[in-house]
Design a protein that fits this description.
The complex is a heterodimer. In chain A, 68% of the residues lie in helices and 3% in strands. Chain A is built from three helices and one strand, in the order ααβα. Chain B has helices spanning 40-56, 71-79, 92-101, 109-112, 137-145, 161-173, 185-193, 204-212; strands at residues 6-14, 29-33, 60-64, 86-91, 113-128, 152-155, 178-181, 199-203, 217-221. Chain B is elongated, with a radius of gyration of 20 Å. Classes of the chains: A mainly alpha, B alpha/beta.
Chain lengths: 60, 252
């Protein structure tokens, strides 16, 4: 895991990778620790959970 | 809030038995994606995937398995050997929202996967069919308000940003717009251009050509910064104050 994480951190800081991302109108996110990623995803789930529930969004 | 509607993309690995660093990697790495081949997000994955192959000294294989809001791909990675050689590229729908949207999921994003990198955000642009006499979000809101239930919008699925963004738009302004789901982003965009639905939120890359050709009009972007390729398209306006206005924190 750490090896992969380390590789991804290195790669995501490469200017060429970021250039490709920008050319597609996408936004790069600075690499962070695994723990930070876990917290981020959990926070997303909480933030958007409200809207999903209030709009009664269900699978089609 | 609307200024921060994006889908986040993350590279994750299934949680399993620890592998000794010196044995890793012992074979090719397979990257399974919830995304379809050829999409902008897929292109980015292949870009860093190339680098990963160089860095790890083993080939990296891509396996696109779009479908069911990422459930197909996530399940495939969960069921593969959890030895770090099969990885998942997922979106916020697959990793953060599905647990709320679906009563039952064959995987648990928190328990089954480790997020190695949350590396990308994909912002959206609000597009309308050019026959609508509106040039801004506020004009669109007024136009829709005067025609409750008469207009429809396209989305890419229940947990996708287009659906969420449009729901937020409707709640902010107290609007009723009929929801028409599509299987994927290109189809959702094409049908707005064809006039089968009148509006929707679209990824910049996929909608750029239509906007340039004036087959679609872009009213606002959902990100904090304007798009490089659409510098004239403004940010989302501040939501109107009032009983319908809700504060949702941004997805980014």
């Amino acid at each position: 895991m750490n090896r992969l994480h380390g590789e991804m951190t290195r790669i995501l800081n490469l200017p060429d990778v970021n250039k490709t991302i920008a050319s597609l109108d996408l936004i790069p996110v600075p690499p962070a620790s695994i723990e930070s990623n876990q917290q981020y995803i959990a926070a997303e789930a909480r933030k958007w959970g409200d809207l999903v529930r209030s709009a009664n969004i269900r699978p089609e | 809030m609307m200024r921060r509607v994006c889908i986040a993309i993350a590279l994750t690995a299934a949680i399993g038995n620890p592998v000794h660093a010196q044995d890793y990697p012992s074979k090719a790495i397979t990257i399974t994606l919830v995304l379809a081949a050829g999409t902008g997000l897929d292109v980015v994955a292949r870009t860093w995937g190339e680098q990963l192959a160089l860095g790890l000294g083993k080939p990296v294989i891509f396996d696109n398995r779009p479908g069911a809001n990422g459930i197909v791909a996530a399940n495939a990675v969960k069921n593969a050997a959890a030895d770090g050689h099969t990885l998942l590229v997922g979106t916020s729908a697959a990793l953060a929202l599905n647990p709320t949207t679906y009563k039952q999921l064959p995987y648990d994003p928190q328990k089954d996967f480790v997020p190695l990198a949350v590396y990308l955000k994909s912002p959206f642009v609000l597009i309308v069919h050019p026959s609508l006499p509106v040039k801004s979000v506020k004009e669109l809101a007024a136009y829709v308000k005067a025609r409750p239930g008469q207009l429809s919008y396209s989305s890419t699925g229940p947990g996708g940003a287009p659906r969420l963004a449009t729901e937020m738009f409707m709640q902010h302004y107290g609007l009723t717009i009929t929801h028409v789901p599509y299987k994927n982003s290109p189809q959702a965009i094409v049908d707005v251009a064809a006039g089968h639905v009148q509006l929707g939120f679209a990824e910049a890359g996929a909608s750029r050509a239509f906007i340039r050709d004036k087959r679609l009009r872009a009213l606002a972007v959902s990100s904090l910064t304007r798009f490089n390729s659409l510098p004239e398209v403004p940010h989302w306006p501040k939501p109107p104050a009032g009983p319908n206005s809700k504060r949702y924190r941004g997805m980014h």
